[in-house]
Q: What sequence folds into this?
């Protein structure tokens, strides 16, 4: 039961991190200058290019951990 819950939580985290990757980097990928910054004038927010790597890494790690937990669920308990 605990593995099922942790797999679901990790899968939810990977979806959340993927959403943050989209919001913080992917939408603005054509706007970054040579310093890796993008200023969005309507809201006054500065987006950093490095945040894309961070959110993508977190999403991949959480997804990998959830796949590992699901794989462990399929193995018979000894």
A:
């Amino acid at each position: 039961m605990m593995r099922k819950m942790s797999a679901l939580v990790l899968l939810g985290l990977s979806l959340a991190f993927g959403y943050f990757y989209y919001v913080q980097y992917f939408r603005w990928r054509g706007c970054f200058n040579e310093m890796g910054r993008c200023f969005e004038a309507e809201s006054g927010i500065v987006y950093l290019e490095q945040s894309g790597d961070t959110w993508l890494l977190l999403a991949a790690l959480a997804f990998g951990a959830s796949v590992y937990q699901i794989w462990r669920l399929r193995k018979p308990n000894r």
Notes: The helical segments are 2-24, 50-74.
